[in-house]
Design brief:
single chain; alpha+beta; Ubi_Hdrlase_CS; flavoprotein; FAD; UbiH/COQ6; oxidoreductase
Amino acid sequence: MHADLIIVGAGMVGSALALALQDSGLDILLLDRGPFEVAPWNPAAPFEPRVSALSAASQRILERLGAWDGIRARRAAPYGEMQVWDGSGTGRIHFSAASVHAEVLGHIVENRVVQDALLECLAGSGVGLLPGIRLDGLRRSGDGWLVRLGDGRQLRSPLLVAADGANSTIRCLAGCATREWDYLHHAIVTSVRCAEPHRRTAWQRFTDDGPLAFLPLERDADRHWCSIVWSVTPRQAGRLMALDDAAFARALGAAFEWRLGKVLEVDPRHCIPLRQRHARRYVEPGLALIGDAAHVIHPLAGQGVNLGFLDAATLAETLLHARSRGERLADLRVLSRFERRRMPHNLAMMAAMEGFERLFQADPLPLRWLRNSGLKWMDNLPEGKALFVRQALGLSGDLPALARA
């Protein structure tokens, strides 16, 4: 079987790329190990533990791909404020969408909701869908790739895109080098119901153990629910995961300084080891890495999928422009244009998240004074905070057309 383009991984980022190229005239195959099934929506269903903080730029991409209406028809929690403070000092900073005359800073959306909305759009597209696929091998074949499937079938394409996540099979089979290290932290994720409403605010406290985020959720107009991401040492994670729900709720409330009152309910908890990973190159001849296959960052700002959506939109734009000029899409010179646009932005975001994580884990008194003074100083600079908000909203920077306001 032959295709002009094979995308491996039908998660949020791979599906977005396929939709962005659906009218390109290319013969596209989208492969995934799972089924392409959209479960019937139940508004009363429990929250999924994995959520994303979708930026305004990601929202614009999803709108233009036709998926945003499907997301809103399910559930998405907008937030217009962000409160960040140092639990070991007096430093704090507040961000507001109103500072740049915007309605929201973003939306907290369950990953499954985004995925189902994208799959609905794919069902009506011209993209070829191959579910339940297990990759058995990958090798160069002439000017392209030969992909061997677990059932014995073989696929050929001049261009292959790896969108198959942090533990990308394609990246490993192709021998793409990465830089990576363990954060020596685990993230506990779950959903909780608090005594007080979240006020459509994203809350983040930097504790001695690691950052703790309370991200607003909504179900049936109930604004007491939050998704939590609690980064702690592996030993602390083991202790917290062993607690019963009542004890965990008390520990969580204390770590959050009871900002939203008592934690009344706790959904099932999940513990995820945190690891930083970045591919040394995003492209080779006939191969491109996007999303978590190319870069995995600390979840403290929820920026991972936003970087992935910008990867997908930028790669689609690069390929469409090259096709309009009659260029060979698999040529390294074409694919390098995508890498040159995305790698600096991704590296800058990764460096910022790494810097925040290291600064707030620092114990020496001078560094504690520095971070508290810095937060207070920044909080009194409206222009500086507005610049940060505009960047987060996707109102500035080198954005692909799908993401521009």
